[in-house]
Amino acid sequence: MKTAIRKQMTIHPEVMDVLNEQVALEMHASASYLAMASWCDQRDLVNSKAFFYKQAEEEREHGMKIFNFINDAGGAAVSPAIPIVNNEFESLQAIYETSLDQEIQVTQSIYKCFKQARKVDDFASEVFLQWFVNEQVEEEDTVRSILGVFELMGDMPLKMIDERLPTE
Amino acid sequence: MSVFTDIQFSTQLQKVTFCKYLLILDNKRISLTFPQLLQLRYKVKEHTTCVNLEQTINNHNFVLLPIADRQHLVFLEIPKLLDLKEELECYFYSF
After folding, report:
1. Contacts 24+ apart (CB under 8 A), B34-41
2. Is A5 inside any structural domain?
3. In CA terms, which of A34, A58, A161, B13 is 20 to 30 Å from B59?
4. pLDDT one-digit tens code per residue, A115-148
5. What is the CATH number of the domain that holds A118?
6. Contact at CB, B35 and A75, closer than 8 angstroms
7. Considering CB atoms only, which of B38, B91, B92 is closest to A76?
8. Is residue A119 a part of any domain in this protein?
9. What is the ipTM of this complex?
10. Distance between CA atoms of A115 and B72, rounded to whole angstroms?
11. How close, in Å, is residue A128 to chain B by CA atoms?
């Protein structure tokens, strides 16, 4: 029995399950960033809209990376259903704060996958996930830096703040 | 008399060849490829989450499950569904 399943797939079934959940989370994050980009685009916040469009693409790429990995490792990747995405925001700062919360949620979820891979000795998945662990440090840091700008320029007009935000 | 060989389980999963599996549900015998087996595992797992199970119990008390790329449609009452879940879990347990 052990050999039967192992011969068909490299990825551990339990790791496959949490990675499929991760795909869903990344795709939801992508959709959520798209809503944020649209909010900024409608208000001509050039730097912010570019930032969120880029984030939306990046999150989708992350999801696809995991999706392909699952199938390449002999598992079954599942195309996720995207739950309802919030399209209404009270301010630009609130958007970036939501963005940071979202990134933290993704990071925690990556840790969960990592832990699961380690628990069941799925070394291939563990090594694969290392890239995501590093990537999330960068992602969180980027949003924190932007929120720092709001701390400094909180009272300035919205467009002026947007112009000061880092574009890369 | 061998006790174990005489027992007939109503839900069974067997490996036939390298890529072929056989699912026995009562009198029904369903041939499955490995991707179809993974798909079945996923569906059964979805149906047996606490939320979905409670919803099923409160509504019809059964699920209709398409199996093997929709070549078969099986009617499963809750105990049978849980039985199938157990069988699949055992099969994947010692990976």
Report:
1. B34/A8, B34/A9, B35/A76, B36/B67, B36/B68, B36/B69, B37/B13, B38/A75, B38/A76, B39/A76, B39/B69, B40/B65, B40/B67, B40/B68, B40/B88, B41/A13, B41/B88, B41/B92
2. no
3. B13
4. 999 999 999 999 999 999 999 999 999 999 999 8
5. 1.20.1260.10
6. no
7. B38
8. yes
9. 0.78
10. 37
11. 19
Structurally, chain A folds into a number of domains equal to: 1
Contacts of B43 in chain A (CB under 8 A): none
- The torsion defined by the Cα of B10, B14, B20 and B23, in degrees rounded to 10, comes to 10
CA angle A133, A61, A73 (to 5 degrees): 75
| Structural domain spans, chain B | 3-93
Strand arrangement, sheet containing B20-25: B11-15, B20-25, B28-33
pTM of the model: 0.87
pLDDT the model gives residue A1? 42
Print the domain residue range for A130.
Answer: 11-78+89-164
Residues A64-81: tens digit of each pLDDT? 999 999 999 999 999 999
- Residue A4: inside a domain, yes or no? no
